[in-house]
């Protein structure tokens, strides 16, 4: 019985750590997504203007 309890405790600790890792990866992914969205919002008009200038110069 004691061995069963020890095995159960070890298994629960291992699963808990895996769950924490999954949550950490999810938080990192959300942070990266927010950074990319903010960068696109601020850099979008600048990049668009560059492409318009290139397109205008190619038509000449």
Brief synopsis:
The protein is an all-alpha fold and 60 residues long.
List the helices and strands and how they pair.
Layout: H1 2-59
If you had to describe this structure to a student in words, what would you say it looks like?
The protein is an all-alpha fold and 60 residues long. It has a domain of 31 residues. It has 1 helix and no strands. It is rod-shaped, with a radius of gyration of 25 Å.
What is the mean pLDDT?
83
Please work out how many helical segments DSSP would assign: 1
Structural class: mainly alpha
Shape: rod-shaped
Main attributes of the structure:
60 residues, mainly alpha, 0% strand
